[in-house]
Amino acid sequence: MSEEHEATAPAAPVELDEETKARKEREKNELYSLDISGVEWIGPPGTSPDEERVEIAYLPGGGVAMRSSLDHDTVLRYTEAEWTAFVLGARDGEFDLA
Question: What range(s) does the DUF397 domain occupy (predicted)?
Fold first, then answer.
């Protein structure tokens, strides 16, 4: 088959900026509307819930919640894409202070 007749996959649809913003807003709204009262909070190995530490909980749909063990009322929630970007950045040294 010649190059000009090779089959190519159709291009993925490109989201417009407004569509992207609306989709992300929907994802965040869904994430913050989840009832997380029964989630399992986990902290770093070797730490106790009685000491100050960062705890995370895996949410349905791939999201992650994060809080301080000393402040259960303030909970940050991240979509799966946001959490993945954070973890990859941390592994890459993006947040190293030294």
Answer: 50-91
